[in-house]
Structures are given as C-alpha cells and as structure tokens.
Amino acid sequence: MKPKILIDRDIPFIQGVLEPLAEVCYLPAKAITPEACHDAKALIIRTRTACNQDLLEGSQVELIASATVGTDHINRDFCKTNNIAVANAPGCNAWAVVQWVTSALYLVTRQLPIPLSQLRIGIVGCGAVGRCLHATLTALGVHTILVDPPLQAQGGKGYTSLAMVQQFCDIITFHVPFTYSDQSRYPTYHLADEHFFYGLERRPFILNSSRGGVVDDYALLRALERKQIRGYCLDVYENEQDVSPALLEPALLSTPHIAGYSIEGKQAATAAVLQAVCSHFGWPKLLPKLEVDETQRPFNAGLSISDLAKTYDIRKDSLALKAQPYALEQLRSHYAYRHDWQAYEFGNCKLSIQDPLG
Ligand SMILES: NC(=O)C1=CN([C@@H]2O[C@H](COP(=O)(O)OP(=O)(O)OC[C@H]3O[C@@H](n4cnc5c(N)ncnc54)[C@H](O)[C@@H]3O)[C@@H](O)[C@H]2O)C=CC1
Ligand SMILES: O=C(O)C(=O)[C@H](O)COP(=O)(O)O
C-alpha cells in the first residue's frame, strides 16, 4: 500500500512529483490537524504547522520534512521520544535573505550621515545567511563585526562578543535560530531585549529577518522612542498572527516574513524535503518540478550596493504590509517569488555566489 503523505499546499514545485509512489494530500497549513495527520506516514510542512504532542500523538507519522531553515515550530524532544524523524532545508534560502538585507541596507544607508564604506555592520549569527552576508559586505568593502558564540566555541576564528557589536556598530542584523534557554547554551529568545538596547553606543539601525522573538518587539519600540536606535527594519515579528500596526508604522521597512521567498530558495527547499522523503522510504531520488522559464535569466551588470538593491524592490513588500497589517499571512500565500542572485550574472564579478553550507 502506498504511504499517505500530507503536504502543505503552499510549498511550490512539488505537485505531481510524489504521486506515483505515495497517496498524496495537499492541505492549507491550517487544515493539517490531528485528524488529518492520524493515518499519514509523513508530513511535508512549512513554518505554519506546529508539530507537537497535540498534532502528533497517536498518529502514524514517521517523518516530518520542513521546507524551511528554521525548525522552531517542531518539538524535537517529542519527535525523538516518539521515533519521528525530522528533516529541514539548511541553507536553502540564504541568498534570498542576503538579498533582502542588502536592499534594506541600501535604504538604511541613505538615512545615515556616513557612507557605507565607513560604517560598521554587526552580523549576529554567522551560519548560512551570516556567512553569505559577510562575503557580500566584504566584496562591497564594508567593515563587519561577527558574533557567533556556538561557532566560536567550536574553535571558529574571527568572532567577537555581542558587547563589541553594541559598542562599535552602526547597523546590527540578526541571523540566529530561535531558541530558549532549555534548548541551547546560547539561547536567542529576546537576545535583543531592553538591557541590550541600553548597552548600544552608536544609535544603530536594527534589522531582524531571523525569527520574531529574537528581538523583543516591545523593547524595540521603546528603544526607538528613547532614541537608543535610529530605526529598524523587520521581516519577522513576535506575533505574526496579529502583528501590531504600532510596530509596523515607525519601521523604515516591514515585510511579511518573505525574506527567504526566492524561486531559487523555494526550489532548494523542495529539493531538500524530497530528498528526505525519498531516503526515508528508500525511493530513488526525485527532483522538484520547475515551472520557471530558465532561458529568462536576469542579468545584472555591476557590483555596487545600488546594483544589488535593484534586483529586489523591498519597498513594495513593505508598503503592502503597512497598508494591510492584518493580511500578513495572505501576502505570504500570494507572494510572487522573486529571483535571488543565484539566477544573476554579475559582470566584473567580485562577489562569489558560494554554497551557503560550504
Ligand atoms: N525571514 C525569513 O524568510 C527567513 C528566516 N530564517 C531564519 O534565519 C535564521 C538564520 O538562518 P541560517 O543562517 O540559514 O541558519 P543557520 O543555522 O545556518 O545559522 C544560524 C547561526 O546562528 C548561530 N547562533 C546560534 N545561537 C546564537 C547566538 N546566541 N548568538 C549568535 N549566533 C548564534 C549558529 O551557530 C549558526 O551559525 C534561521 O534560523 C531562520 O530562523 C531563515 C531563512 C529565511
Ligand atoms: O526558512 C525559514 O526558516 C523561513 O523562515 C521561511 O522562509 C519561511 O517560509 P514558510 O514557512 O513560509 O514557507
């Protein structure tokens, strides 16, 4: 008998791929309920399905494959105890997020009295995104300060402390997973809290495209009122189901959690979940079904921050959410995925579009 697989219907490039081998059921995230999961062997989900005891207890689920980088929506302890394998898509959308950050930086720097080449940018979290961002900023001649205690503890070189970032940076951007103190030696829940903001010395801009809750949104607003920060750009929020207009309104940019939404990122995410499913069930490798015209490759001639920012108009996404704060989920579901830089050819190239995991 074919195993039943539930798939979030907002995952692109997957329809029709698993059908020859599985009984496939596409559902909106909201409809992935305990009843729907009961007789499923595998779930292919996104950040919108909380995989916990409530959802999984008593089900036949053996594998959860999330087409995302973050896994904070999955209770890994419960899965381990109940022999449920968990897979995600590490690094899949790193270049899309770097594109988001770069477009944001382009607009941020226009608000600052000093040119980009004289700014110091703090990168907190130097995994797939942080590493690609560091490579980009280095190619642009921008000075960075890197913070990643887990990598530093493993002997990684070139990292410093959050205190140095607080002291020296004009812009601080977060690229960490969301973790509580019982999950990590270096928890990130409210890493940027009131105490953090009181410690800032250069009135920086704050960027958060990692997870809501890494930055304490209330403390962020208070920091702006107290002029401890110059401004902020957000893609993620503590309460994405009901994001506060009071938080969006003063933001220089506020987008609906789409930093990672590129065609290339989504394709890589789908490839990763397909690989996880095929290896779990012992099936031959299956690839995403692309509906993209590969001959229509965009071209970008130069490598300056304005050239890079031209590849993605972040203002459009920000204006859309500001106009409809209550439509965050709808804006994500109907998002027209953009190309990230993996699809571009750079003339005069000094920027190497490296493997985010390399
Ligand atoms: N807004 C969006 O659309 C997207 C958001 N994300 C989020 O961004 C995060 C970063 O993405 P990736 O770089 O791909 O993940 P990653 O797992 O490759 O890198 C995370 C890095 O953060 C470091 N880290 C952990 N705790 C830390 C701490 N307390 N302080 C500083 N560094 C710490 C880790 O050592 C690791 O190097 C993800 O965990 C995900 O939650 C990722 C992709 C898209
Ligand atoms: O990969 C992640 O982690 C993200 O945050 C995704 O970009 C969010 O993607 P969806 O859950 O909306 O597919």
Automatic annotation (TrEMBL):
Among its keywords, does the record have Cell membrane?
no
Broad enzyme group:
oxidoreductase
Residues at the active site: 211, 240, 257
Q: Keyword NAD: yes or no?
A: yes
The GO annotation for biological process reads: pyridoxine biosynthetic process
Example of a GO cellular component annotation carried by this entry: cytoplasm
The UniProt keywords, alphabetically, are: Cytoplasm, NAD, Oxidoreductase, Pyridoxine biosynthesis
Q: A Pfam family name for this chain? A: 2-Hacid_dh
- Give the enzyme's EC designation: 1.1.1.290
User: Tell me, what is one Gene Ontology molecular-function annotation carried by this entry?
Assistant: 4-phosphoerythronate dehydrogenase activity
Protein location: Cytoplasm
Q: Give the pathway.
A: Cofactor biosynthesis; pyridoxine 5'-phosphate biosynthesis; pyridoxine 5'-phosphate from D-erythrose 4-phosphate: step 2/5
Please tell me where NAD(+) binds in this chain. 148, 235, 260
- Quaternary structure (record): Homodimer.
What's this protein's family per the entry? Answer: Belongs to the D-isomer specific 2-hydroxyacid dehydrogenase family. PdxB subfamily.
- What does this gene product do? Catalyzes the oxidation of erythronate-4-phosphate to 3-hydroxy-2-oxo-4-phosphonooxybutanoate.
What PANTHER family does the record tag this protein with?
Answer: 2-HYDROXYACID DEHYDROGENASE-RELATED
Q: What is this protein called?
A: Erythronate-4-phosphate dehydrogenase
